[in-house]
Amino acid sequence: MGMILSTKCRKVLEMRDGGSLDRISSLPDELLGHILSFLPTLNAVQTSMLSTRWRYLFTLTTNLSFDEPQYFRFLDKPSSKGFKRFINGVLALHIVTPIQKFSLKFRRTYEHDYQHQHLLVWISAAILKGVKHLELDMSSREISLPNCIFYSQTLVTIDITTVIHKLDLKVPGLVCLPSLRVLKLDNVTFLDGESIKRFFGGCSQLKELVLLDCELGTEYVDLSALALEKLTLFWCRGHLEINAPNLTNLSYLCSWPNDGVDMTFLLKNPCSPSTLEVGFRSYEFSGHIPQFVLSLIRGAQNARELILTFDALKLLTRVDNNQLPTYAKLESLYLDYCCYDTWKCVTFWLANSPQLKTIVFNEGLLKDTSCDTEQNWHPSAKLAPFSSNVETIEVHGFEGQKSELLLLNYLLENARVLKRLILYKCSSMKTEDELQVSKELLMLPKASTYCTIQLK
């Protein structure tokens, strides 16, 4: 099996053969092993071809990274069997304990390429070496995890992603992960509610939890995570009652099928995260707004950052403003974009957020070309907080349409302390259009004498 040396390895080899003083090779073994730890394991192993001095230095690395796509890209005759032999050989020779990180990535779709026993051996070897950070990115059909992963005393982060086929997480009766701080699961299925309780019951120090496209069952499950500070739930299916009194950062995105939301949760203890992200992906809402959504928005009254997708904003237009509190600590508001139907909802936050400093439109300022008259933007609510506090407005995907300029005109006329209006133009804007838009922006009246307008 031929190996292609990386550019860095070739440079070291050329320097040695040219008679130059090889200062790197004179460094202590431990230091060289530490340096090689910053390379993918394949590249670290390639350095063994430099000289006898380098032959076994890769065995001293503190990070092990096995990336199948890289293996197939850099070897002249790659094969699945060769990749397995490569991993087995490195693990057999590797002598450093503990290791900082073990990363395994393979995307072969044929389950016979990576038999179950190989995965169990590789992951178990990492656990036995006292690994702190475990990263798995897999796509085989038949996958399960060794039981030792559930009672590792050293694991600080676990990041598991599966593609094509979900991983059925078989949780043993005992789970003890006293050092675990960060857990990310992508495309994973919990077999029942009891397994969820057992799993998270054994993660007493968990600070950050990310669940992406996970199946959590059909019944409400009590998830207790007393140390949890950051929670992300994206595109999951299930129902949770969350006891997380120290939660400060909450991100929630779900789809909205015809029979209701597919992921709901309740925060059991009074909790007001400082950062809240709420989003839905549906264009047709029917029926009543779920109570947990209202509770979530109301409970964010002490949030400093609020992130709302367009569909979440559209949903909230159904809510009577009297049902929502004043957001006394809100400093940053992030929106996808605005339209005439959601403008009333936007002005609610402008009028009821006395500490608001920054407004960001992530996907454009306005996507409603029917709004071409100035009077459309005059709300009934008084915008005194907006006028006297907002310092930065940022727009991504700015197109320079007439309706956008009218809305900007209204905002600039009312933002008395605005310092920066930053407009990131859309990729399709032509040079001649950019020049014309720049001229029109300069002509807009501004209530703030300190405001600068940047078109980028």
Automatic annotation (TrEMBL):
Transmembrane segments: none annotated. InterPro entries: F-box-like_dom_sf, F-box_AtFBL13-like, F-box_dom, FBD, FBL60-like, LRR_At1g61320_AtMIF1, LRR_dom_sf. Pfam families: F-box (PF00646), LRR_At1g61320_AtMIF1 (PF23622). PANTHER family: RNI-LIKE SUPERFAMILY PROTEIN. This is F-box domain-containing protein. Gene3D superfamilies: 1.20.1280.50, Ribonuclease Inhibitor. It comes from the Eukaryota. Residues 21-75 form the F-box domain.
